[in-house]
């Protein structure tokens, strides 16, 4: 139906009333159909909803009288008929189409949230009437998610994989807007299945109204990779619905495990959940794959910013302990991820007295196995303990020596690791002693009747994914090489380990003896290692100038900060510590493990906490709780398509959501970013024709702490813009011929000086709907660098016959200075100098330019 415009002439009055009546009649017809499908369409249990185009809930007329009208012109439609945007007058809307373009609304009751894949069945009578826009809740979602390049036969298109995000269950309004007049729309399908592809007329139309469906359960966290475990919670918004779940990959039924409370996942698992309620359809299946990435086969890496840590502070910490000789290495682990490292990762360092802490773990294994108790007398397990020298028997002290005293430097032995005298009564003096630690190793060798290195390899190293290339233990150099024919090891020193092995040992301790679902060390032992031994309190310290207040911060062969000697370091921090400042540091309250080995940054060694305090202070300061900005990554978009993505952040300490901002100054006009106020922000940009020439562009996103504006995280990404995607290239026929109208270009880009190709009907006799004129006509010509400077039109063609192709161009030269063009192939001036020129002045002519 054509609505004539009012012109300032006397006939206005005589035609005004008929025009008004015609509009009213049209509005009444539309209103009569608006509520034909008033009830929302129901998404089914598989996450699919299918709607016929004619089953809209409401329609609207656009600017210029355009409207969606029922149409049966082209047979083969699904349902009763199809819907066509009329009149077909080459009008299109790519900006403000929600306000100006005719629309149709469809009510959908979604029971599944998240990504939905969109398929549209349509027909394009011509290349200028083959596209539409899609929106959600009257919002121009993702540039309208325009679907275009439908052919002149019915077909399904997902326009390159278009999706829409449903952020909440319940009723939402799906919007269809005309992009180009004349487009014919037949059916739309939305599905949560990325592999679904409709065929033929597509699935039957979904039911509207009827039996309600239980809302899909929400699983939190909704998939992801975690270092050691994840706590799973499941809920549904349907009151009274019961949730059942599985963790074995099967689909849940009412015979599956009922969900009653959050539960823990410690191994990679897919959680499936479904909700049930009498009188309702079962919910759609919800699932979440939780990946547990124990570092058995290597560490999961993360940037400091991802983990809420300050990389500058971490660099300063590294520089503090690194002597600049490239002879040291370090790992910093946060929440099971390697966030910072330096030095060679494969060098095995002699970690000296950190061997004592590894020996403590072997003691813990023996305790856990029930082979020994800390309070046991050492001689009850090894009668020769403490001798040689035999003079150690003269005092009678050896009869009272306990295993615990050997593990806490209160056995009365002096520093050296060989067979030395017992100089103090056990339990009366704290005296740092390699000799006492080595007697502990000897007793444990006898108790286990095995080489302690073998035990450590089998019981600890193997589950952690370590072998002898990561950690070695030299033979005893201070004592007899064997005990009862078994190779003896020292606890005073002797282990060499790479930085990875040290970090994994620390991570085992951090996880309180658990590794990938396997209990390696007991929780009780972890307490003995990480907490100060109460029996040490009040004891004097031998050589206190070197070991300071050791009795207040020492456990079973591990140092700690229980007494708060380092005021800015958590009191639950504990560590191994050897000459050369080899360190395995565990900070449970911060979920941090630190490993450092190599050349010491200071002369000599002592147990002065002020030596390591600056190093630890910097690491604690780095874990400041700056907002974590989830990495966005570089993006790619085609011209005239809309790029939309969500920027997410959270604050690991401050419950208030971070503020999100974006620096989009490097992008062409039109890009926008909105802080949603909940820790997320939305970026949107629709590059226009020509924006690909300046690609790529950069954009910087910043998350700022809600309380302390000095705490920020940033990410700069690259956005590449490509020329528009062609959906339907022109097809060469079997005879080798290919013909197309010039106005049916796939891409049109302006040139230097504002020159551009515009549609033109000035000269009658053109073929098709119009011709294209290079404007303005100002006697400018390009014979050099025309690819870069001249306005161009691109036509995508599908060639089925290789070899020589002969070109003919139909054109019109208004003058002898405006009668030529260049032709190229795939962006190159392959026909460059063979320009097409000298078209006849005053008439349309064919030319092959010789």
Describe the overall structure.
The protein has about 850 residues and is an alpha+beta fold. It has six domains: about 1-30; about 35-190, Galactose-binding domain-like (Jelly Rolls, Sandwich), CATH 2.60.120.260; about 220-295, Immunoglobulin-like (Sandwich); about 350-565 and about 595-605, Beta-lactamase; about 630-720, Immunoglobulin-like (Sandwich); about 730-850, no CATH class. It is about 15% helix and about 25% strand. The chain has twelve helices and 52 strands. Strands 2, 4, 5, 7, 9, 10 and 12 form a seven-stranded antiparallel β-sheet that branches. Helix 3 (about 310-320) runs antiparallel to helix 11 (about 615-620) and helix 4 (about 355-370) runs parallel beside helix 6 (about 435-450). The chain is elongated.
In short:
The protein is α+β, with helices and mostly antiparallel strands and 850 residues long.
Secondary structure category: alpha+beta
Number of DSSP strands? 52
Secondary-structure arrangement, i.e. CATH architecture of the largest domain: 3-Layer(aba) Sandwich
Describe the global form: elongated
Biggest beta sheet attributes: 7 strands, antiparallel
Rg, alpha carbons: 38 Å
N-to-C CA distance: 48 Å
The fraction of residues assigned to DSSP E strands is: 25-35%
Ordered list of secondary-structure elements with their pairings:
Layout: H1 11-34, E1 41-42, E2 48-52, E3 58-60, E4 67-71, E5 82-86, H2 97-100, E6 103-110, E7 114-123, E8 132-136, E9 155-157, E10 163-166, E11 170-178, E12 184-191, E13 218-220, E14 224-226, E15 230-235, E16 242-246, E17 257-258, E18 263-265, E19 269-276, E20 286-292, E21 300-301, H3 311-321, E22 328-334, E23 337-342, E24 349-350, H4 354-368, H5 403-406, E25 429-430, H6 434-448, H7 452-461, E26 471-473, E27 482-483, E28 486-487, E29 495-497, H8 499-510, E30 514-515, E31 518-519, H9 523-530, E32 540-541, H10 544-547, E33 559-560, E34 574-578, E35 582-587, E36 592-598, H11 613-622, E37 628-629, E38 635-638, E39 643-650, E40 659-663, E41 672-675, E42 680-685, E43 697-704, E44 712-722, E45 730-731, E46 747-749, E47 756-760, E48 771-775, H12 786-789, E49 792-794, E50 797-798, E51 809-811, E52 845-847
Parallel strand pairs: 1-6, 14-20, 21-23, 25-32, 38-44, 45-50
Antiparallel strand pairs: 2-12, 3-6, 4-5, 5-12, 6-11, 7-9, 7-10, 7-12, 8-11, 13-15, 15-18, 16-17, 16-19, 19-20, 22-23, 22-36, 24-29, 26-29, 27-28, 30-31, 33-34, 34-35, 35-36, 37-39, 39-42, 40-43, 41-42, 43-44, 46-49, 47-48, 51-52
